[in-house]
Amino acid sequence: xxxxxRRVKKLLWYLVAVFVWIGLLAGRNTPLAAAQERDASSxxxxxxYPAPAGESLSQDYRVEVNGIAVPVYTxxxxxxxxxxxxxxxxxxxxxxxxxxxxxxxxxxSQDIRGARIRPLSMNIRDTPIxxxxxxxxxxxxxxxxxxxxxxxxxxxxxxNPPEQNAPKEGDADVIFFGPGIYHPAxxxxxxxxxxxxxxxxxxxxxxAVFIENAENVDIRGRGILDGSEWPHEKGPKEQLLEINSSRxxxxxxxxxxxxxxxxxxxxxxxxxxxENVKICGGRVSNDxxxxxxxxxxxxxxxxxxxxxxxxxxxxxxxxKWGDVDDIRVEDSILWCDRARITLMGHESRAKYMQDIIxxxxxxxxxxxxxxxxxxxxxxxxxxxxxxxxxxxGAGQEDLAVINPTINQYMVRKVPGHIRNIExxxxxxxxxxxxxxxxxxxxxxxxxxEDVKFENVNVLGKPLTKSYAQxxxxxxxxxxxxxxxxxxHEQ
Length: 490
Known about the structure:
Blueprint: H1 3-41, E1 46-48, E2 61-65, E3 68-70, E4 73-75, E5 91-98, E6 102-108, E7 116-118, E8 127-130, E9 133-138, E10 142-147, E11 155-160, E12 174-177, E13 180-182, E14 188-191, E15 196-199, E16 203-206, E17 208-212, E18 215-221, E19 224-226, E20 241-244, E21 247-252, E22 255-257, E23 264-267, E24 270-275, E25 278-280, E26 290-293, E27 296-301, E28 304-307, E29 312-317, E30 324-336, E31 342-349, E32 352-365, E33 371-374, E34 380-394, E35 398-402, E36 417-431, E37 436-439, E38 448-458, E39 461-462, E40 470-472, E41 476-482
Parallel strand pairs: 5-11, 12-15, 13-16, 14-17, 15-18, 16-19, 17-20, 18-21, 19-22, 20-23, 21-24, 22-25, 23-26, 24-27, 25-28, 26-29, 27-30, 28-30, 29-31, 30-32, 31-33, 32-34, 33-35, 34-36, 35-37, 36-38, 37-40, 38-41
Antiparallel strand pairs: 1-5, 2-3, 2-6, 4-5, 6-9, 7-10, 8-9, 10-11, 38-39
């Protein structure tokens, strides 16, 4: 074989080797690329739910998560005749699922330089791109309020964990709403024992939900249960979501928007779990977020509540339905435009309201005293703990009002009793204000006793006996302040 032939043969072998190597690389890369694509669309990474056709979306914001556009919904505030009140106007919200780490990019019609991301305890800081665009990262499921101008037109961000074992359309005992807009006949969805109501991401269901004399009921999904098409107090049922005389009920993941009255109400029920529920209220004057009436073993966890009226109220509506007992509110964010963050009493037709814990709570906006404890009708309010609470103050007059009382909601016009109330590790920051703490009894039989304030800090100063806005009235016993532990008794 000549030298030239050998060179040609060598070149041919070289070209074959190159093509084989390219083929091997292609063979390796093709399935890898497909796997990466699958991973990118997997609920374990990021799930974005398209908005249904016909849903009116926000004109204030555009949002991308990891470069994927996320629908921006809206919720109304102060429908007529309440529109003379200014609580910031219509606001926006987004919802998506993820694990790991995502980058959120917000574009806004207004100048968003200097925006705050609440709760501040999350320590999330954005990086402005220009006056109308900014970005930040999160690495765990959170509920946030992005606020360029306080309460005026904020953007709520509901970054959920992935759904687990979501039901499918056609599954037994499942009422299934896939993506789309729905108006169920009669406006009411009635659930029976062992049923699941599933509202998928991208679904908006205009209806009330009613559960009565049932057990083992689930309401779940990433969609919206909407009451905003009905005027104040003229919905298809008295409450948007009522759990009546039932047990083993779970509400998880959904958004409750624009209730026409009380929003989520367990009545005479037991073993109720409310987890990762987002209440976007503020539309009407008595849209209480969660009212727990004569119910026991209720857990509220990882939730966000914005309302005009009380965020969470504990009530005794009927002596025959038993006590309000074993209530837990944990790891949640609360926002009340006009009334109280938590109310215990007023409707007091129960023997006891007891064993109540609020723990790891961020109160990002409030108006009246966020802690209002006012039992009547001989009801005893006892064993209440507020622990690890962070408040953003805007110069309000009151912080806590604790006293047995008589009011227009009571059938028996007699006060109640208060004992064993504790505030531990509570911090209020923000604007200067009064932030009064008022404690009083009613008479020698209806006292306020055993109240402890431990490590309570208001605008950088500890709440002690000498706190300027502390009012301790008659018929109080064993009022204790730590670190100032000398006590104050009258």
